[in-house]
Amino acid sequence: MFDWKSFLESLEKKTLGIINITDDSFSGDGVLNSNQQLEKKFELAIKNNVKLLDIGCMSSKPGYKILKRNEEINRLNYFLKNKSKQFYYSIDTFNPSVAKKALDSGFLIINDVSGFVDEKMIELASQTKCGIIVMHRNPKSAYLHEKMKYSNVLEEVNTHLIDQIEHLIKNGIEKKQIAIDPGLGFGKNMDDSIDLFLNLKNLITVYPLVVGYSKKKFTEQFNMTESEMQKHCIDSGVALVRLHLDN
Question: Residue 106, exposed/middle/buried by CB under 10 A (0-12, 13-18, 19+)?
């Protein structure tokens, strides 16, 4: 069974590196069908001592289009044929078939930005005992990027995450499998994302916290360098900072 505590202890650097196997990524860093660009990402990960890579085969940017299952699988297959054995991997998907293919191919973690709303995904994680990253999802939201109104975003995100986790545990997920993500930039306006980022230390502390702010527009409001934002996360108790591999 995957255990976040022991896994995190094995990582020297608390970074989750992003590799997008897409041609339409929000940040323009997709490496679909470009072995040269993929190899460059691996080299950057090695240079920065990043051992855990998050592989996404479908963009989840605002206005994203859901791919046919076979297309997402085909993109994953491309990555599997060219992956490096020097890293650990998580799969960024909300498609249970894609997640299963990744786990069967040695991936350790499912990173589901939809918040594990698909019962088939929950069943897969329960059966395989893999690691999971549960992103915050407002229960009233109809779709991933619907901007929801919050009176106290920190309190409400904590409450929603607790409810999500309780549902997972009731359906066979073990506590040691679970990490959480507040979902910065997902279904939140800029002020809400800023509020969450500045108050990361007040998010749930029972489970490892994964935070992804990289290249998101709300960070332009901070008078902070990239290294200062990373330090803020680590000082706030964040277990993994999810970052693009740029330099």
Answer: exposed
> pTM above 0.85?
yes
Q: Where are the alpha helices (DSSP H) in 171-218?
A: 190-198
> Phi-psi bin for 81: left (phi > 0), alpha (psi -120 to 50), beta?
alpha
Amino acid letter, residue 134:
V
Q: Which residue has the tokens 């991997």?
A: 89
Strands 178-181 and 210-211: unpaired
The domains found in the chain, sorted by start residue, are 4-244 (3.20.20.20)
Tokens at 80, concatenated: 């599997």
Write the DSSP symbol of residue 246.
Answer: -
> Phi and psi at residue 55, in whole multiples of 5°?
-105, 120
Q: What is the pLDDT of residues 142-186, one digit of tens each?
A: 776 788 999 999 999 999 999 999 999 999 999 999 999 999 999
**Tell me: the pLDDT tens digits for 93-123?**
999 999 999 999 999 999 999 999 999 999 9
User: Starting at the edge strand that comes first in sequence, how are the strands of the sheet with 210-211 ordered?
Assistant: 178-181, 131-135, 109-112, 88-92, 52-56, 15-20, 240-244, 210-211
**Residue whose tokens read 């929950």:** 122
CA distances from 162 to 14, 104, 156 (A): 24, 29, 10
